Amino acid sequence: MSWKGLLAGVGVGFAAGYLVANKVQEQSHISSEKALKMVKQALSHKGEVTGSWVHMVPETFEKYDVAYEVYRGGLTTILNDIQERFEFLVDAKTGTVLEVNAA
Q1: Is 54 within 8 Å of 72 (Cβ atoms)?
Q2: Partners of 83 in the beta sheet?
Q3: Strand 59-63 relative to strand 66-79: parallel, antiparallel, unpaired?
Q4: Each residue of 72-86: pLDDT tens digit?
């Protein structure tokens, strides 16, 4: 086997691995626990978080004619002895908070 053939094979292998890794990464979701942690950080100005939950399985949500895979969840905060509950939707791929509503 010549060096050219060996180098060509190695090059093709690296290129294929790179393409497969990018494709897998595009389709993967962040974990629901990570999404919940990101929401807690984003809403920390609403008070101390005393309780939270998140659905483990993403669901499809459409907003402005754009479909998202989202995690649905909620949390409870206390600020100045006032308890508030919120429900949220988080993009399962990016972790972006798409919607927060007082429950």
Answers
A1: yes
A2: 78
A3: antiparallel
A4: 999 998 888 888 899
- Vertex 26, ends 41 and 34: CA angle to 5°? 20
Structure tokens at 50: 């005393």
Distance, CA of 37 to CA of 30 (rounded, Å): 11
Distance CA 78, CA 65 (A): 35
Cα(35)–Cα(82) distance, rounded to whole angstroms?
Answer: 25
**Tokens in use for 25?**
């990464």
Q: What are phi and psi of 51, to 5 degrees?
A: -165, 150
pLDDT per position as a tens digit, 49-62: 888 999 888 999 88
What residue spans of the chain are helical by DSSP H? Answer: 3-27, 32-42
d(CA 24, CA 50): 36
Torsion angle in degrees (nearest 10) through CA of 34, 95, 92, 17: -90
